[in-house]
Amino acid sequence: MDSSSDTIERWGVFEYSARASCDGNPFTDVTFGAVFRLGHRRVRVDGFYDGDDTYRVRFMPDEEGEWELETFGSLEALDGQRASFRCVPPSEGNHGPVGVIDRFHFAYADGTPYYQVGTTCYAWTHQEPGLQEKTLETLAAAPFNKLRMCVFPKSYRYNRNEPPLYPFEGEPLEDWDFARFNPAHFRNLERRVEQLRDLGIEADIILFHPYDRWGFSDMPAEADDRYLRYVVARLAAYRNVWWSMANEYDFMGTKCEADWERYFRIVQRRDPYQRLRSIHNGHRWYDHGKPWVTHASVQSSDLHRMTQWRETYGKPIVVDECRYEGNIEEGWGNITAEDLVHRFWQGTAGGGYVGHGETYLHPDDLLWWSKGGELRGESPERIAFLRRFLEDGPAGGFHPAMHRWDRHCVQRGDGAEYLIYFGWSQPAEHSIEMPAGERYHVEVIDTWRMTTDALVGEHSGAFTIPLPGRPHIAVRLRRI
Amino acid sequence: MDSSSDTIERWGVFEYSARASCDGNPFTDVTFGAVFRLGHRRVRVDGFYDGDDTYRVRFMPDEEGEWELETFGSLEALDGQRASFRCVPPSEGNHGPVGVIDRFHFAYADGTPYYQVGTTCYAWTHQEPGLQEKTLETLAAAPFNKLRMCVFPKSYRYNRNEPPLYPFEGEPLEDWDFARFNPAHFRNLERRVEQLRDLGIEADIILFHPYDRWGFSDMPAEADDRYLRYVVARLAAYRNVWWSMANEYDFMGTKCEADWERYFRIVQRRDPYQRLRSIHNGHRWYDHGKPWVTHASVQSSDLHRMTQWRETYGKPIVVDECRYEGNIEEGWGNITAEDLVHRFWQGTAGGGYVGHGETYLHPDDLLWWSKGGELRGESPERIAFLRRFLEDGPAGGFHPAMHRWDRHCVQRGDGAEYLIYFGWSQPAEHSIEMPAGERYHVEVIDTWRMTTDALVGEHSGAFTIPLPGRPHIAVRLRRI
Fold first, then answer.
1. Hey, are the CB atoms on B335 and A431 less than 8 Å from each other?
2. Could you tell me what percentage of chain A is helix, strand and coil, using 3-state DSSP and rounding each to the nearest 5?
3. Hey, how many other C-beta atoms are within 10 angstroms of the C-beta on A469?
């Protein structure tokens, strides 16, 4: 028995471990967990077996104060152990987990707005350690605050290499013991999630995906369910975890709708923190209106439909995949940087959020979208510019305003700020009529060149804004 | 009585005129026309009153030989007159009228393929004569082989000037005698149609449109019908005439579906040559499946739906309006030249046809799309490049082939030529599998830079084509 520390910051991870030996399969034959208490509040948390006769339970305290815990377990050495720790204020940069606010948007638990600006490295934790470190180095300098990543390794064009670690004991290919996890695999995953957390990046953990040659996409239901419980027990305490039930769930031919509902139920029931949950589609969208979905995770090119999707689902819309910057022959991975940056602004100006990916051909198949490594595209610095724009304004997200078919317009802060985005159009002027009695400062933003030009003076009522007559222009109006 | 000539080339215009005086209204109280005969063939043609006690009947002979005519009329001087002329072979460049072939495409009557590459100058014949001449001069050097133009003047933003001539007698605004046409207006219109014909340009004559301050969009049904008969009698003989019932028909609130059916019926019944007929939409598409519609004339931005529209209507699809190159604030008139050229190739690679328009702000409101004048954009020379591409290949139009969501592919000549177009995508390579046993020459086309690079050697079976990794690339494969 030991505890990692007697003092844990709010929204940090407290870990309690105990040792016991088991004659059978410790992954399946032993139960272990703990009940955490603060005053009259009780939180029951599943533990997990981590190899070497070691059982652990992890917990994220969300309130400051003196927490106590008492273990439960099916082996004597695991049962009825007590410990306590003090939860202290969060350190700088720790804003807590991200949740949904204002129906369509996100914020950290401390109220700081979270403007989702995601990227994608599906299999980065399945590459050699040096490449994983390089990915973290790149992310540290990149604008992204969310990363989509798979628990399972990936088998797909440009991704034929075997991973250093597998999630189960056994031998590739397909001679796995799905009842015995490989702790080393999950320890690496957790460390990477922690490192992302320390970079301020949410980890959108993809639990299943179809790009598989090892059999992980087609396990028996019992193995699926055990796997989900194990992942939740290990990872849920990290405040930057989001759950993505799948990448392209509808391309997994052996799963049916009822399977996905069961997976959602398991995660929903086992996760003490109710981390954000969604599921990403290939061709057929999931019904994100279902109550266990916290936000829509979407693959679509049709970002002009953002406001329509908001109305359909009544939840935050994150278009995680709208085609990637790159030059591969597959159409989902060969749009220009201009186009991807445009899609980010288009989604923003529709009241939603967009994700990045990069797929430039590389002699060693080092494509960011799958393996991480280095970014070579031109969109990230423009996405950084967008992120600064989002964070420099009234708190809260954008909502549709003043709809017209030929441009997007949103407002936030009850009209304190308006954003109008013209996309690929190149108007040389724009006429507008603002609410009577209000005065505004007007800025003309070139989203590609990353410039912001303030118009002289104050504007009110009906007026015409001169524009540069080239694509990728946005206008911001700030109420005085 | 006189005839313009005793010898008329095939598909030229023969005109016969007669003089008579009438106490009442010669436009409504007098009937006049002629029956033209070649052997046992008889063609009944309506004449029209052209002012100055002069009645005319025009006829386009479509067969060589000795034609005879006999007039009919409700005044003695107009009735039973006889004349004859010899129809001789067409002069160079006269390929006859354009008709539908191969269900989805067009050809001239002599079999020459007609690849529609249109533009738009709605009100060019309503400008000062000097500007009309300038428009013709511009068109002579431009790639376009069809022009959309209105019979009625237009009242809309950037188009507030009064026209030099009105179609009816009376005084603006709205004190018109709809029962008395203004022959001078129609003589100018005809002369311009003739001049277009001599430039090899089809005149897509728009019979009604909503942008009106004179009352021409809201005449009594009787006046509408008389107007249609008059226009058909005057213009149908010009082989380059197409009939467009309306521009944005659904924006004409005082017309109902039955009105449009009646207009189509009148034109269909009165036009001896059955010129091409369509109708252009605003928001609500006309049902182009109706039997009196010869081809779909469409306003839409969704050119990736071209193949779907072909299937829906089973007719040639002409997207006459897909947004114009320009910089006005209205979204339908501010796309870049790149985007418009892209739309032309996208439509072509979907097995259809696209139209051009240009709307750059001008200190004197000289916007090509409405008034004509000069072209200032960058798309026309690229559209010329496309036209040369279309005319340099197996005769006939393109049909969808090898569908994939991320690029367009069409073929013509039963697989003699394939066109693959990648649009805004920037693949650096493309893998393809061609029909077994065939060999191909491969060309990589930069549709924006207007370059064509032939790959070395012959290609067959499955192979990968290296591409430049930038947008606007097409590939042509020609069977050897």
1. no
2. 25, 30, 45
3. 18
pLDDT surpassing 50 at residue B201:
yes
Beta carbons within 10 angstroms of residue B50's beta carbon: 18
Going by the DSSP 8-state scheme, the letter that residue A435 receives in this structure is P
Nearest chain A CA: its distance from B399 CA (Å): 22
Predicted-complex ipTM score: 0.91
Asked if the Cβ–Cβ distance from A426 to B328 is below 8 Å, we say: no
For chain A, the average pLDDT equals 96
H-helix or E-strand spanning residue A183: helix A183-198
Of B332, B334, B426, the CB nearest to A426: B334
Residues A95, A112 contacting (CB under 8 angstroms) = yes
For residue B155, name the pLDDT band (cuts at 50, 70, 90): very high
DSSP A330-358: SGGG-B-HHHHHHHHHHHHTTT-EEE--E
* Amino acid A403: pLDDT: 83
Hey, of A321, A343, A409, A425, which one would you mutate to test binding to chain B, going by the most B CBs within 10 A of its CB? A425
Name the residue of chain A whose CA is nearest to B335's CA: A425
Give first-to-last CA distance, chain B, whole Å.
60
8 Å CB contact of B331 and A430: no
Is the CB of residue A99 less than 8 Å away from at least one CB of chain B?
A: no
Assign B389 to helix, strand or coil. Answer: helix
Query: Is B235 strand, coil or helix?
Result: helix
Q: For A352-356, A400-404, A413-417, B260-264, which range has the lowest pLDDT when averaged over its residues?
A: A400-404
Whole-Å CA distances, A313 to A141, A204, A308, A412, A461: 34, 20, 9, 20, 34
What letter does residue A125 receive in the DSSP assignment? Answer: G
Burial (CB count within 10 angstroms: exposed 0-12, middle 13-18, buried 19+), residue A136 = middle
Cβ contacts of A470 on chain B, cutoff 8 Å: 336
Q: Which domains does chain B have, with CATH numbers?
A: 2-88 (2.60.40.10), 98-377 (3.20.20.80), 399-479 (2.60.40.3950)
AA letter at A310:
R
- Cβ-based neighbour number of residue A383 at 10 Å: 25
> Do residue B429 and residue A329 have CB atoms under 8 angstroms apart?
yes
